[in-house]
Design goal:
By secondary structure, the protein is α+β, with helices and mostly antiparallel strands. The chain is built from six helices and eleven strands.
């Protein structure tokens, strides 16, 4: 299937979501399988994410992607900063030529309720919407995942290092104000939207 969501965040940053309905052969025509992935669906997700990069940014060198020790994909020359996420039958990417980025896509599931104490503080739990705990908890997990990918250096404790301060709706989407405490105290605004029973969240910051 084609892109189901595409958004130009600013002059240098864009985002896209692909609903995976194709066979591997469709993606392999344009994207090389750079590493061994034995699980068929995980392999399909991997290919879809890499296929989507040049779909959003023509000329994106997918074949040059390398994987850091932290499992973060990157380009050595940093011609583009990018982040990839997969969940079920969806692949999401964010690409920027001038900003540091992170993205995540998560399916809403009641299962997340059992792990809430592992990634949310007592103060953050007060922000969970009554009657819709699984929905909000999935959103908060996705927000923290996008920040984790934005940071890119691993060793982040979701409960200790990422704090959700506020949640608001604006122009049909969500804005989650957060503090990243791993290095100093960085204020971040994570944008999110609900898309086909999934939450999509992303964060961008200027590179200094």
């Amino acid at each position: 299937m084609p892109l189901i969501y595409q958004h130009q965040i600013n002059g240098s940053t864009k985002i896209g979501v692909w609903h995976i309905a194709e066979e591997e052969s469709f993606f392999l025509k344009k994207v090389p399988l750079q590493r061994s992935i034995t699980h068929p669906h995980k392999r399909l997700q991997h290919l879809a994410g890499r296929y989507l990069l040049p779909e959003l940014e023509p000329g994106f060198p997918s074949e040059l992607i390398k994987i850091a020790d932290t499992k973060k994909p990157f380009l050595e020359n940093e011609a583009f900063h990018f982040s990839i996420s997969h969940c079920a039958d969806y692949a999401a990417v964010i690409i920027s030529s001038h900003q540091r980025v992170g993205i995540d896509v998560e399916m809403v599931s009641e299962k997340i309720i059992t792990i809430i104490p592992k990634f949310l503080t007592a103060e953050e739990m007060f922000l969970l919407l009554p009657g819709n705990i699984a929905n909000t908890a999935t959103l908060f997990w996705s927000v923290k995942e996008s920040i984790y990918k934005w940071f890119g250096n691993g060793s982040v404790d979701f409960k200790k290092h990422i704090r959700i301060e506020n949640l608001e709706k604006k122009d049909g989407s969500l804005i989650v104000s957060c503090s990243f405490l791993k290095e100093n105290n960085i204020a971040l605004q994570v944008h999110a939207l609900f898309l086909n029973d999934h939450y999509l969240s992303w964060v961008t910051t200027d590179i200094h």
